[in-house]
Design goal:
This protein is mainly beta. The chain has eleven helices and 51 strands. Strand 33 and strand 34 form a beta hairpin.
Length: 942
């Protein structure tokens, strides 16, 4: 499937220029001059062409244009021998200004002593040191004695990374451009050199993915992305052909990475860097030809085929794989229906100016791919055309599973209920049900072609139904739809019982309808319904899984390559799994954890004047204890009734809290909606409190693990510019718009965002423990009934044995020097996979963040003093490392108000301000002498 608009815009975005300040009359290229006379040559350099955008992993403008050092080579043009070769840095560069925005430039002045005569001049900027992912280049350049050796030199990416967290982008330049071979003449009396353009060896790739406007209630949720065939080798100076040509010259990203939502409309984007990969094809005339794959017979499914290698795309050409979920409402035969699809797109890079043969990625170029999802009609055509014997594939490179249903129920991971209506006429001719869960999958019916027997279904007992009562009106009988039925295990029926009941004519009212309350269990298993797994750590099998689905009264058909399917059903129930940033693949050492609902379906709540969480024993870590403490619920049975807090009235808002509760009580009792009166005794029993409100450190942990969670589960839609406060169950505020800033209840914090200084509503997120017996009752204390921590705090170090690696920088992204300045959304703002060491607060003059930033930019980091005795890599922490120290290491802080991170804010108006904090306060303070402080130095463990 590929029904989208794909545009690639190519913009040269980083050109540096060097030129001298002497008399222009003194330069005469190619003139005969006296050789070997020492002369002073004054050089200057500038960078003036801006990058167009900044996204998640894109470096800030100043970092993309910054020149940290410059290796200048001068060779004798006649002999090719080296006459000058020095690495210039620091004050030798004579930096005058640095680019930060449109209209600004990076420039500086240098002076060198050269010999007169005919020369060839080359320059390399930002030569990496021994701590870089491009190791060994400095030593190679030091050893170059002639121009041929320089032109044959190559760079090798030792760390297989698509990020450039340290900045220092490698650039090269040839005097007069590549076509001149660097030839020029230096006169004995002095020379003005023409500009030398320094070009990055990197390309920057940005993908923006959104859904086309128009239609009715359309939505596309981007899930994961992955890059394949990234070059590891590159010629230092560009050649006619790439030197990367074999399998070992390329790498594939690790596991797919979650998207980052960049605006409130749901558009997602990502950015990465890579070296040039200039592949081309011939004879292609349209886009669809680029993604065609071989089709081989699928022996395990007679009559179907398997996708093989690409037919037309060149071997080792770079491509991106995107996944996501599509949803829309549509009308068919006058009836409103719903369509969902999980889709995968494969997009080869290139296609500049709509050239189908172009698979090239050039150095020193920014590519912007705008992918607009129109609809899923092509997938629909692929499936239906095969079924009619045509076997067409109109959109190679895009596949998906489509569901068309009369009614679609999207449910989160907790307990829920809804009204479900069956119309006798609409369901005629339909039979059976389809399951897709972590433990069971198939189409089940009584004898339908291609179905399994109903008796084979195992995992269907997570949905139950209770029929409503008919009432008489004007001599006709109708079902009541204004209130939910209460859950009673003796009164509900399962899907098999429902299918039998729908066959009875007398259950339908005078509209031809029958109405049920549908009860959906939480997405949690205490035993394996398939009987194949009896582990006491079963939670690792069902968290972070695709939605489990039940299709009622349905049929399914497949495309010829079985990469796409079409299911039509009367009702589809799709339930999200519990999401967690814990590593579900961890070994037996991880026994328990906690997870969250994906979204807050019941909306924000209005706060009262005083903090509703006011007990003196509330915990910053244990949200479940906080709920019991604040509400006074006892262990075991209680006298509190469900009806006092949860209404049975059907409401469109989805908020089922009783209207009799005041605003404070609603904030405290909000997560009770995620639970159920399981035994039907109308009393709120302690063992029925499975879902509870998050504590402040749990909110911080959700931020720490954000990049391991799907974009829907993020606490803040990145790219927004509105305040978004959460109220924790120990009464602290959590500022999601800043990542993980925290403070007290209704703190008047003017962070530059409209409405932020006077919050009118609080969001909240509900949490569930995983693999714990503590759900059987109230915790004995705030220290009891807590899951395993994902982080281990030792003597001066943090390690991460139990967090999903997607929340961390991988081994190839180890940081061995100071970070470039980055935002809270950048991959640089993650902890390192092996952990980090930390120090106490430095005894230095307290500075505002901007002065601390400039100090580090000048190579004067206060953390550098620890780089001795062969131990290197000490630096300022990033914002997440600062938050981790604040939440788990209360010792070692100075009395100052702030301790600084290297991270700045992505929020409009805050981009020149940085994060600071202490154990009870994290924020982005304004530039003021009132907000000064030291740092706590850290280093990656490597």
């Amino acid at each position: 499937m590929k029904q989208y608009i794909l545009t690639a815009l190519c913009t040269v975005c980083a050109i540096f220029t060097l030129f001298s300040c002497a008399d222009d009359e003194l330069v005469k290229k190619g003139d005969n001059v006296v050789e070997g006379i020492p002369t002073k040559v004054n050089l200057s350099f500038t960078a003036a062409i801006p990058a167009k955008i900044e996204t998640k992993a894109a470096l800030p403008t100043v970092e993309e244009f910054r020149v940290h050092n410059l290796y200048l080579f001068v060779f004798n043009a006649n002999t090719g021998e080296r006459e000058y070769g020095e690495l210039l840095s620091g004050g030798e560069l004579g930096i005058i200004s640095e680019k930060n925005s449109e209209g600004q430039v990076t420039k500086g002045k240098i002076a060198v002593e050269l010999l007169s005569g005919n020369k060839r001049i080359y320059a390399i900027a930002n030569v990496p040191d021994g701590q870089s992912s491009i190791a060994g280049l400095k030593a190679d350049l030091d050893g170059i004695m002639n121009v041929d050796d320089l032109l044959e030199n190559e760079a090798n990416l030792l760390q297989q990374t698509i990020y450039r967290s340290s900045g220092k982008l490698l650039m090269t330049g040839v005097y007069g451009g590549e076509s001149t071979n660097g030839n020029c003449t230096i006169a004995p009396s002095g020379t003005t050199l023409e500009p030398i353009s320094l070009k990055r060896v990197d390309a920057r790739i940005t993908f923006n993915i959104g859904i086309a406007s128009g239609g009715k209630d359309k939505k596309f949720t981007a899930k994961k992305w992955q890059v394949v065939n990234v070059p590891k080798r590159i010629s230092l100076f560009q050649k006619e052909a790439d030197i990367s040509s074999s399998e070992n010259d390329f790498f594939k990203m690790g596991d797919p990475i979650s998207f980052e939502t960049t605006n409130e409309a749901g558009q997602a984007s990502f950015t990465f860097y890579m070296w040039e990969n200039r592949k081309s094809a011939t004879g292609l005339s349209q886009y669809r030809d680029r993604e065609l794959q071989d089709k081989a017979a699928d022996d395990s499914h007679p009559g179907y085929v398997e996708n093989g290698a690409f037919v037309n795309a060149p071997e080792y050409s770079t491509y991106v794989v995107l996944t996501g979920d599509y949803y829309e409402k549509y009308t068919e035969n006058g009836l409103e229906k719903e369509r969902t699809a999980d889709v995968t797109y494969t997009i080869h890079l290139g296609y500049v100016n709509n050239q189908a043969n172009d698979f090239r990625t050039e150095r020193n170029t920014t590519y912007i791919y705008n992918v607009t999802i129109q609809n899923v009609n092509d997938i629909r055509l692929e499936v239906t055309s095969f079924q009619s014997g045509k076997g067409q594939e109109p959109s190679p490179g895009a596949e998906g599973n489509i569901v068309e249903t009369d009614k679609f129920y999207q449910i989160d991971a907790h307990y829920d209920r809804d009204i479900i209506v069956f119309n006798k006429e609409a369901i005629e001719g339909r039979a059976g049900f389809k399951l897709k869960t972590p433990f069971d999958e198939g189409y089940f019916s009584d004898g339908n072609a291609g179905s399994k027997p109903l008796s084979d279904a195992k995992d269907y007992n997570w949905v139950h139904f209770r029929i409503h009562k008919k009432s008489k009106s004007y001599n006709k009988y109708y079902y009541d739809k204004k209130s939910y039925q209460k859950y009673n295990s003796e009164e509900v029926i399962d899907i098999k019982g429902l299918l039998e009941e729908l066959k009875k004519d007398d259950i339908y009212d005078d509209r031809g309808e029958v109405v049920y309350t549908m009860f959906i269990d939480e997405f949690y298993y205490t035993s394996d319904p398939s009987g194949k797994n009896s582990s006491n750590q079963l939670w690792k099998k069902f968290v972070n899984q695709p939605n489990r689905e039940m299709h009622i009264l349905c049929n399914t058909a497949y495309s010829q390559d079985r990469e796409s399917s079409l299911t039509t059903s009367s009702v589809m129930i799709s339930q999200r799994s519990i999401k967690t940033f814990y590593n579900e693949d961890a070994g037996a050492g991880l026994k328990t954890a906690w997870g969250i609902e994906t979204i807050n379906e019941t909306g924000k709540l209005t706060p009262p004047n005083s903090n509703p969480w006011d007990k003196n024993d509330l915990s910053t870590d244990n949200g479940r204890w906080n709920f019991f403490s604040q509400t006074g619920l006892p262990n075991g049975k209680s006298s509190k009734e469900w009806d006092s807090y949860i209404s049975n009235a059907v409401v469109s808002s989805g908020n089922h809290l009783s209207s009799n509760l005041d605003n404070g009580a609603k904030l405290v009792w909000a997560c009770l909606q995620r639970n159920r009166d399981e035994n039907g005794n109308d009393k709120i029993d302690a063992d029925e409190i499975k879902w509870y409100p998050a504590s402040i450190n749990q909110y911080t942990d959700i931020w720490i693990g954000k990049d391991a969670l799907p974009v829907e589960a993020h606490l803040y839609p990145n790219g927004s510019n509105i305040y978004w406060r959460y109220l924790s169950s120990n009464g602290n505020e959590f500022y999601a718009e800043e990542g993980s800033s925290i403070n007290g209840y209704k703190f008047l914090y003017a962070n530059g965002i409209k409405g932020a200084s006077a919050p009118t509503s609080y969001d909240y997120r509900c949490v569930r423990n995983l693999g714990m017996d503590s759900d059987a009752g109230k915790p004995a204390s705030a220290e009891n009934g807590m899951p395993d921590d994902y982080v281990t705090v030792g003597a001066g170090e943090f390690t991460f044995p139990y967090i999903n690696k997607d929340a961390l920088r991988g081994e190839n992204d180890v940081q061995k020097a100071e970070f470039a300045v980055h935002t809270e959304l950048d991959p640089a703002n993650r902890p390192y996979i092996k952990g980090f060491e930390y120090k106490n607060a430095e005894n230095i003059n307290w500075l505002v963040w901007e002065d601390m930033r400039d100090l580090v930019d000048r190579g004067q980091s206060p953390c550098a003093k620890y780089n001795k005795n062969g131990v290197t890599g000490w630096r300022l922490p990033n914002q997440r490392e600062l938050s981790l120290m604040a939440s788990r290491s209360t010792a070692g802080w100075s009395e100052s108000y702030y301790h600084w991170a290297r991270t700045t804010s992505s929020l409009s108006g805050k981009t020149n301000l940085g994060y600071g904090g202490r154990p009870d306060f994290i924020s982005i303070p304004a530039k003021s002498n009132d907000y000064r402080g030291p740092v706590r130095c850290v280093r990656d463990k490597y």
